[in-house]
Write a structure and sequence with these properties.
The chain is of the alpha+beta class. It contains four helices and nine strands; from the N terminus they run H-H-H-E-E-E-E-E-E-E-E-H-E. The strands form two sheets. Strands 3-2-1-9-4 form a five-stranded mixed β-sheet, covered by helices on one side. Strand 6 and strand 7 form a beta hairpin. The longest helix has 38 residues. The chain is elongated.
C-alpha cells in the first residue's frame, strides 16, 4: 500500500510539474510575441499614412487651395491704398499703400449693387439707422445707384441678414470687427474698386 501511495504521489507531482512548465512556457511565448509587436512598426508609427488618412489629407489640401483662391486679391483691381469689393464672391479686401492685403472678409451684399468700376469714399457716419431700419455703425459710403446710397456698415446687433429684394437698400453688411477695420482703413477719398 505504501509503495502504491508513493507511486501515485509521484505521478501527481510529475503531472503538476509538467502543467507548471507548460504554463510557464505559454507565458514566455506570450511575452516574446508581445515584444515582437512592440518592436515591429505599425503603419501609424512608421509614418506611412493609412489610406483613410491619406484621403483626409488630400481633402484638407484641396480645401486649403480653394480657400487660398477665394481669398486671393482679384487681378486688375487697382494699385496702392484701396478697398476692393468683389460682387460675385461677396468679399472685400483692404489693401495698403504698398499693395499688400491687410484684411479680407466676406460681406452680405446690399439689395442694390453698384456696377463694376472705381469709386471713392464720399461720406462716413459713426452710428446711424440703416436704410432697412437696423441701427448700424462704421458706415462708409462710396456710391449712388438709382438714388440709393451704397456703403459698407455693421449692424450693432451683429446681424448680417439677407437683403429684402423688394426694398431698395444699399447697406453692404460686415461683421462688427470687419466694420471697425474698414472704418480705420477708408477715410473720405479712399478708392473703392468694385469688380464683378
Amino acid at each position: 500500500m505504501a509503495r502504491s501511495s508513493g507511486g501515485s504521489a509521484g505521478v501527481v507531482v510529475a503531472g503538476l510539474t509538467a502543467a507548471a512548465l507548460a504554463v510557464i512556457g505559454f507565458f514566455a511565448y506570450q511575452a516574446s510575441a508581445a515584444q515582437d509587436r512592440v518592436e515591429r512598426p505599425s503603419a501609424a508609427r512608421s509614418g506611412e499614412p493609412s489610406p483613410g488618412a491619406s484621403r483626409h489629407a488630400d481633402d484638407k489640401g484641396r480645401q486649403a487651395e480653394r480657400d487660398k483662391r477665394e481669398k486671393a486679391l482679384p487681378a486688375d483691381s487697382g494699385e496702392g491704398l484701396r478697398v476692393v469689393y468683389a460682387l460675385k464672391r461677396q468679399r472685400v479686401w483692404l489693401v495698403g499703400k504698398d499693395g499688400e492685403v491687410t484684411r479680407t472678409f466676406t460681406v452680405t451684399p446690399s439689395a442694390v449693387s453698384p456696377p463694376p468700376g472705381t469709386y471713392k469714399v464720399t461720406s462716413r457716419s459713426a452710428h446711424i439707422q440703416g436704410s432697412d431700419g437696423v441701427p448700424v455703425e462704421h458706415v462708409v459710403r462710396f456710391a449712388s445707384v438709382e438714388g440709393v446710397t451704397v456703403g459698407f456698415s455693421a449692424a450693432l446687433d451683429g446681424s448680417t441678414p439677407t437683403p429684402d429684394a423688394s426694398r431698395k437698400t444699399g447697406g453692404v453688411r460686415e461683421k462688427r470687427a470687419d466694420g471697425e477695420a474698414m472704418w480705420s482703413h477708408a477715410p473720405i477719398g479712399t478708392p473703392v474698386v468694385v469688380v464683378p
